[in-house]
């Protein structure tokens, strides 16, 4: 800031500040133009970076399409789910399996035993008026005289974690049932040390897969498994459950009225997963080139330049925003770098994949993906039926079109041999590198790009001009201050003369 003392028309009566400000408007024109050029360069740089972000999104999608795993997703199917359903648990070694169910297994059941209460017990809330105890799988259960069946069941279920047994009540049959929490030969209901008779008729005994020692007339069930038999690809296997695992596949058998029954299990390409991956790629490609083409086709109105500081002072925030929206539009109109990048992307998709294993499947158009009219600038369209058929009938060829890697040392030949996703990825990298070299990256702490250097140059020139204008302004104020000083001296001399002449007249 200048230290020049500024006299603001104290003697002359002039509005010195307004006069200097008016004079400085002309002096500031070169500075305003520099600021406008810098602002325009910053806006254009931001536009380039925005386009680079779009290309990066497309590159990330292209990266997935380079990977064979994207096209090798498999799904297990059963041709007769009334016989068997399947779930993939590991990696099956074969592509198909024939399942012949000779007989179905009887699944292991929980061990259980039922006791019918005396007729004197009206319901589960009736007090038994009889105290007794017993051990359930070595855990003692004490029954008080005031307990009802409901109370007893609560006591039994409160220790289920220890006994492995739960109890329930059947109202219609007025019976209490003990059921193991698990099935199989190890599941056991063992009742011992019954202290006398009781109205529930609970008696001693054991029931499980190996023993059944409850007295005759007591309802009970063993937990034994009755194995079934299946043939897988012609070889016979015993199965102890309706759900079993074989070669990374979980197979669930369904009950049938007649046996044997058959189903074929197939490991096929997951058509939906592959189709959705390709569709997602096409949608992203269309989205990106659409936005870039829109940017290239925008018109730029040269009458709308960045506003100067003085111009902004006279406008509202809304007016400034509207003006700058127009001023920013069309800065990349017909940009050769972006146009060239889009041209390279279109060629990467349009050219045949040289050396493909099937000459009839070496191009997107041969799997149901075509290009729109010339006016649509390379937009892609999918014929869903054709693409799904290609995935289903020649999935490996579809994969090759996208993922094939060139093996030639010659770059041009390597390009022709590469799949379209490989080409596209490489072309996107080249385009992004060019844009970054020109406009830099918002993620970088330093900007050594061409436009970054231009902006730095503008900033330095602006600082120099601001210093120069400060000196010019100081000179104007010095001149006006000198004028004020001179006028003040003249006024003082005039006053002195008036005083002298005035004094001479009065002495006569």
TrEMBL record:
Residues 12-102 form the Flagellar hook-associated protein 2 N-terminal domain. One of its GO terms (biological process) is bacterial-type flagellum-dependent cell motility. Its main location: secreted. Residues 229-492 form the Flagellar hook-associated protein 2 C-terminal domain. It holds the Pfam family FliD_N. The keyword Membrane does not apply. Transmembrane segments: none annotated. It comes from the Bacteria. Keywords: Bacterial flagellum, Cell projection, Cilium, Coiled coil, Flagellum, Secreted. GO terms for cellular component: bacterial-type flagellum filament cap; bacterial-type flagellum hook; extracellular region. The keyword Secreted applies. It is found in: Secreted; Bacterial flagellum. Required for morphogenesis and for the elongation of the flagellar filament by facilitating polymerization of the flagellin monomers at the tip of growing filament. Forms a capping structure, which prevents flagellin subunits (transported through the central channel of the flagellum) from leaking out without polymerization at the distal end. Homopentamer. Belongs to the FliD family. This is Flagellar hook-associated protein 2. It comes from Brevibacillus fluminis.
């Amino acid at each position: 800031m200048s230290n020049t003392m500024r006299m603001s028309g104290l003697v002359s009566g002039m509005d010195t500040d307004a006069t200097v400000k008016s004079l400085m408007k002309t002096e500031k024109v070169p500075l305003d133009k520099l600021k406008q050029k810098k602002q325009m360069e910053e806006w254009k740089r931001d536009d380039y970076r925005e386009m680079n972000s779009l290309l990066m999104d497309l590159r990330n999608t292209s990266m997935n399409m380079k990977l064979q795993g994207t096209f090798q997703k498999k799904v297990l199917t059963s041709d007769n789910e009334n016989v068997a359903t399947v779930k993939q648990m590991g990696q099956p070694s074969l592509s198909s399996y024939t399942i012949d169910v000779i007989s179905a297994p009887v699944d292991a059941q929980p061990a259980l035993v039922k006791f019918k209460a005396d007729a004197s017990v009206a319901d589960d809330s009736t007090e038994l008026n009889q105290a007794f105890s017993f051990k359930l799988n070595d855990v003692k259960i004490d029954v008080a005289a005031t307990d009802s069946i409901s109370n007893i069941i609560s006591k039994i279920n409160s220790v289920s974690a220890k006994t492995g047994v739960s109890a329930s009540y059947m109202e219609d049959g007025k019976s209490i049932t003990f059921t193991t929490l698990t099935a199989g030969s190890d599941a056991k209901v063992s009742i011992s040390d019954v202290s006398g008779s009781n109205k529930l008729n609970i008696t001693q005994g054991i029931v499980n897969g190996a023993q059944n020692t409850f007295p005759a007339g007591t309802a009970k069930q063993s937990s034994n498994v009755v194995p079934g038999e299946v043939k897988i690809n012609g070889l016979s296997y015993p199965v102890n459950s309706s759900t079993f695992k074989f070669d990374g596949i979980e197979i669930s058998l369904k009950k049938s009225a007649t046996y044997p029954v058959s189903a074929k299990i197939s490991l096929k390409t997951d058509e939906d997963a592959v189709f959705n991956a390709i569709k997602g790629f096409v949608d992203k490609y269309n989205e990106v080139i659409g936005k870039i083409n829109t940017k290239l086709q925008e018109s730029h109105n040269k009458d709308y330049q960045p506003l100067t500081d003085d111009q902004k002072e006279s406008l509202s925030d809304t007016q400034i925003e509207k003006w700058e929206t127009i001023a920013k539009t069309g800065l990349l109109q017909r940009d050769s770098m972006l146009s060239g990048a889009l041209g390279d992307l279109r060629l990467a998709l349009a050219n045949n994949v040289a050396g493909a294993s099937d000459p009839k499947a070496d191009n997107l158009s041969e799997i149901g993906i075509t290009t729109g009219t010339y006016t649509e600038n390379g937009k892609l369209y999918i014929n869903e039926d054709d693409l799904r058929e290609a995935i289903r009938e020649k999935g490996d060829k579809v994969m090759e079109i996208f993922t094939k890697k060139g093996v030639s040392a010659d770059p041009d030949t390597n390009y022709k041999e590469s799949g379209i996703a490989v080409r596209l990825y490489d072309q996107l990298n080249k385009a992004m590198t060019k844009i970054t070299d020109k406009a830099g990256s918002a993620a970088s702490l330093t900007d050594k790009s061409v436009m970054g250097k231009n902006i730095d140059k503008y900033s330095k020139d602006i600082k120099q001009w601001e210093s120069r204008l400060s000196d010019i302004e100081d000179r104007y104020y010095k001149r006006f201050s000198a004028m004020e000083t001179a006028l003040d001296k003249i006024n003082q001399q005039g006053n002195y003369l008036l005083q002298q002449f005035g004094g001479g007249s009065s002495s006569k």
